[in-house]
């Protein structure tokens, strides 16, 4: 729900006027311009539906890896397709996972047809210090973006609010 509310994406050259290189941006629920209710209300509805129907949610990096713009490159589409295939087949439900630093995301250690080194972004960056700097900068952007949602209480006892906030980056 934290990442759904955050709606992290990038403005990319060719799709946005005046953009020459990708810029991080946030759009609550990945559609802020089109939502009528507070984003946390949509997050609560999504959480309820996922719990009711036993649905799973996945974050898939289809963007940049291996370094900042001009150094790294987009993840290859065939790898993205293999990751989506693994989600659809249920393969990832039984995979082994490791937790990333700062964001605490659980990432699979192996997916058939995908080089395991690209699954953990740090492995694709030759400049590990630049990776760490970028990671902390991104965590800061998430934290700043989420400040407007942090005080909004969801539910009678606000436990969902606490769960959502706990899923944010730890800097």
Automatic annotation (TrEMBL):
<protein>
    <recommendedName>
        <fullName>Phosphoenolpyruvate carboxykinase (ATP)</fullName>
    </recommendedName>
</protein>
<dbReference type="GO" id="GO:0004612">
    <property type="term" value="F:phosphoenolpyruvate carboxykinase (ATP) activity"/>
</dbReference>
<dbReference type="InterPro" id="IPR001272">
    <property type="entry name" value="PEP_carboxykinase_ATP"/>
</dbReference>
<dbReference type="Pfam" id="PF01293">
    <property type="entry name" value="PEPCK_ATP"/>
</dbReference>
<dbReference type="GO" id="GO:0006094">
    <property type="term" value="P:gluconeogenesis"/>
</dbReference>
<dbReference type="GO" id="GO:0005829">
    <property type="term" value="C:cytosol"/>
</dbReference>
<dbReference type="GO" id="GO:0005524">
    <property type="term" value="F:ATP binding"/>
</dbReference>
<dbReference type="InterPro" id="IPR013035">
    <property type="entry name" value="PEP_carboxykinase_C"/>
</dbReference>
């Amino acid at each position: 729900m934290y990442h759904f509310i955050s709606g992290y994406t990038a403005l990319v050259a060719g799709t946005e006027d005046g953009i020459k290189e990708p810029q991080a941006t946030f759009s609550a629920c990945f559609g802020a311009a089109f939502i009528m209710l507070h984003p946390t209300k949509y997050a609560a509805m999504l959480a309820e539906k996922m719990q009711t129907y036993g649905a799973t949610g996945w974050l898939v990096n289809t963007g940049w890896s291996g370094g900042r713009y001009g150094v790294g490159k987009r993840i290859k589409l065939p790898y993205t397709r293999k990751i989506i295939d693994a989600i659809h087949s249920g393969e990832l439900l039984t995979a082994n996972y490791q937790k990333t630093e700062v964001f605490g995301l659980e990432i699979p250690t192996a997916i058939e047809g995908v080089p395991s080194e690209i699954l953990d972004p740090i492995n694709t960056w030759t400049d590990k210090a630049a990776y760490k700097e970028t990671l902390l900068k991104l965590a800061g952007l998430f934290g700043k973006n989420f400040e407007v949602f942090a005080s909004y209480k969801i539910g009678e006892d606000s436990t969902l609010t606490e769960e959502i906030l706990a899923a944010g980056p730890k800097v």
